[in-house]
Amino acid sequence: MGVTRRWSTARPKGDVVDHPAVLKLVTRGDPGTRPRRVHIRGKVLVTYSSTRVNMKRDAWEMMGDGDIFVQWIRPKGQEPWAIALTRHELERTFGEITESESWDDPKVRCYHFPLLPPAAGAYRVPTLGPARY
């Protein structure tokens, strides 16, 4: 029997998907592919975009305990969408990726999901299109 990853099962709705700072950020559009810190409405958000759910180590390392992670996802030929997670949710749901070879490889420093992880749906920001690959 295979190992079940935390991201492979659906989760309850995320804590910050409706946060005013998150909604304001996603209405600005694609933030670009390089992780950066943004200050909105008294919150720090760490954000970037990718063509799929792609966790970048640089973004995780930028985050403080109270910060929010927002990834804008823009699959080819489909409407973009976004996910938003607290640091605790990020570590609880996707923390296993920090044990992957690609996470520690100095040339890669990320983990991308070739298929949409089921847990991502819980963190989908509701103002954008449907989450699918």
What would your notes on this structure say?
The chain has 133 residues and is of the alpha+beta class. The protein has one domain. 20% of the residues lie in helices and 23% in strands. It is built from four helices and six strands; from the N terminus they run H-E-E-E-H-E-E-H-H-E. Strand 1 (36-40) and strand 2 form a beta hairpin.
Task: Please outline what is shown here.
The chain is an alpha+beta fold and 133 residues long.
- Strand line-up across the major sheet: 1-2-4-5
Secondary-structure element series: HEEEHEEHHE
Largest sheet: 4 strands, mixed
CA radius of gyration: 14 Å
Number of strands: 6
Given as residue ranges, the uncertain stretches (5+ residues, pLDDT < 50) are 129-133
Provide key terms for this protein.
two-stranded antiparallel ribbon, 133 residues, 4 helices, disordered C terminus, alpha+beta, four-stranded mixed beta sheet
Furnish the topology, listing elements before pairings:
Blueprint lengths: L19 H8 L8 E5 L2 E8 L3 E3 H6 L5 E6 L7 E6 H8 L6 H4 L5 E3 L21
Parallel strand pairs: 2-4
Antiparallel strand pairs: 1-2, 3-6, 4-5
